[in-house]
Amino acid sequence: MRFKFFLSVLLISLQAAGTCHVSPHRLGKSGSDFAFRGTHNAKDASLNCKIIEKNTDFAFTLYKQLVSQAPDLNVFFSPLSVSMILSLLTLGAHSTTRSQILVGLGFNLKEIQEDAIHKFFQNLILNLNVPNPALQLSMGSALFVEERLRLLEEFSQNVKTMYLSEALSIDFQYPVRAQKRINDYITEQSQKKIAGLVKDVDTKTMMILVNYIFFKASWERNFDPKRTREDNFIVSEKTMVKVPMMIHEDIHYYFRDRSLSCSVLQIAYASNETALFVLPDQGQMKRVEAALTQKVMKRWLKGLKKRAMELHIPKLYLSGKYELQKILPALKITSVFSKESDLSGIIDLSNKPSHLTPLISQIVHQTGFEMDESGPQSLMTTKSHIKIRMSTARHHMMEFNRSFLVMILAQPNQSILLLGKVVNPREAEGLSASSAS
Fold it and tell me: What would the pLDDT profile of 316-325 be if each residue is shown by its tens digit?
């Protein structure tokens, strides 16, 4: 009874906030699915909802910028990770540098205090780092600073406490050695999932911020590997590729968005995440992309209903690597990369050599995502698929045989952990497309 009362109060507070959305898959689970650790009242819940709303709009803004640079290629990144590392920088940025980052992320400090933003990300990172045998997640970030600039201990401690990250001194006067040290560090921290992240280090480099994430999870109900078969995937009017297509008959959450000519499907993982797939009608991808906002996503999540379905979807390995110093200026985040940058909260300016200009030379973000019939190897022998027989006259077929969007939503409150567009499922494998006959 006490749990039901707690759940009712919390759901009412979320509805009052007007921006949060809870996955229908998670309504029967524990209260930890609905609130961050340390969130005890409606005010905190409302504030978290506002931050999630801003993060979601930032995710789609950044997505559109990435797509504009490579409209015919796969796009895949972690919006939450990018938001986190930029928020991390504000711990040591001041004046225009700090305000540009916050405005670029969509935050208005008259509505949301900066402390609340850091607390939000701190709690989110803690939630994501809870060990779960159904989830293989490697994520992290680190700031490497030229050793002559002398890191401030307060900044280093704040980064470690709030973002579980590190600020490390390094000697960029030996660029080959420095580059190897950074890449070796990331390879070790990511459990060998991310290699060769940084390049183009030289003696003029002052600071490099790196961020990585690799995600693979087990489904709540696995696909049957015996049903996977090769099938065609349409890349363009003239090109198609053969892909391993997984097949699943089950009850899924589905929504048909007639106004945007697309179909939306949500599948639960055994961990505390869900996958959201968006399949535009043929020729409608650009229309859907242009409409992406948190309000549209909220409508999709609210509209999801149970439906018997035969699903055909490719096995995927997606990766994305982005040098954000080339992308963020389009979002009006420029100061941090210029000689006018104010990073006086990161380094000791009183001991700074006069000829050194403290600025971020590179912000490198890399994402890896794997999706197969089950999940991490450790679970494949213990977790079996469930076969559900359905009348062919009653179930709906959804076939992902052309470009589609994929989002991995992290609980609580459906924050977008990963976001991407699949144009060619075989692109990440290094395999070339063959011309359609």
Answer: 999 999 999 9
Residue 119 CA to residue 125 CA, distance in Å, equals 10
Rounded Cα distance, 207 and 326, in Å: 15
How far is residue 116 from each of residues 48, 100, 108, 155, 168, measured CA to CA in Å?
Answer: 8, 18, 12, 18, 26
Contacts of 140 by beta carbon, 8 Å cutoff, 6+ apart: 164, 165, 189, 190, 211, 212, 213
Among 205, 150, 152, which residue's Cα sits nearest to residue 174?
205
Kindly give the pairing relationship between strand 316-323 and strand 360-371: antiparallel
Judged on CB neighbours under 10 Å (0-12, 13-18, 19+), 396 is: middle
Quick one: residue 95, left, alpha or beta (phi over 0 = left, psi -120 to 50 = alpha)?
left
Q: Compute the radius of gyration of the chain from its Cα atoms.
A: 22
pLDDT band at 272 (very low <50, low <70, confident <90, very high): confident
Give the predicted TM-score (pTM) of the model. 0.87
- CATH code (residue 250): 3.30.497.10
What is the side-by-side strand order in the sheet with 316-323? 166-170, 135-146, 207-217, 360-371, 316-323
CB 263 within 8 A of CB 279: yes
What does the block give as tokens for 408? 């991995």
The number of distinct structural domains making up the chain is 1
pLDDT in tens, 146-156: 999 999 999 99
Question: What six digits make up the tokens of 250?
Answer: 């089950």
Range of the domain at 358: 1-28+37-437
Of the chain, the end-to-end C-alpha distance in Å amounts to: 63
- The rounded Cα 216 to chain-centroid distance in angstroms is 13
